[in-house]
Amino acid sequence: MSEETERQESEAQEAVNETESTEVEAGSDEPSGKLVKSGGRAVKATKSSKSTNPEIEKMERILDIPLVLSAQLGTSRMLVKELLQLGPGSVVELDKLAGEPLEVLVNDKLVARGEVVMVNEKFGVRLTDVVSPTERVQKLR
Fold first, then answer.
1. Bridge partner residues of 46 (DSSP)
2. How far is C-alpha 50 from the chain's CA centre?
3. pTM above 0.85, yes or no
4. Closest by alpha carbon to 29, among 44, 40, 51?
5. What CA–CA distance (Å, rounded) separates 93 from 89?
6. Contact in structure between 7 and 21 (CB atoms under 8 Å)
7. Are residues 105 and 121 in the same domain?
8. Residues linked to residue 116 through DSSP beta bridges, in sequence order
9. Structure letter (DSSP) for residue 66
10. Range of the domain at 93
11. Same domain flag for 54 and 73
12. Is 51 found in the same domain as 76?
């Protein structure tokens, strides 16, 4: 894992820890659209709580943390000597079957599964299954 990835995960974990016990005060009926964790569940923050609640500001900090998203088609294990023998035209067999969903990872943590699609001459992923937000936060620990 790279030093940058470790730093990002550390920042994310710190922010998650700071917001776990957040209580949102309902001073206005007008929602701001921001989600905040309160007592183990996500709640919408109000506009008045956004400006007066420091916990909201902590949550907003983690929303701007850059993450590395990767799509993993499959994996393979090999010996060093096999790795050294690889060259142009070599074929590496992966552990997934053709047509199986690929895994979408953020900082090496599974967040979704999907299928390969083409988007403007580039590869993309159509998500077919997404890990719940609660499970994603738990995987950060």
1. 31
2. 24
3. no
4. 44
5. 13
6. no
7. yes
8. 125
9. -
10. 69-139
11. no
12. no
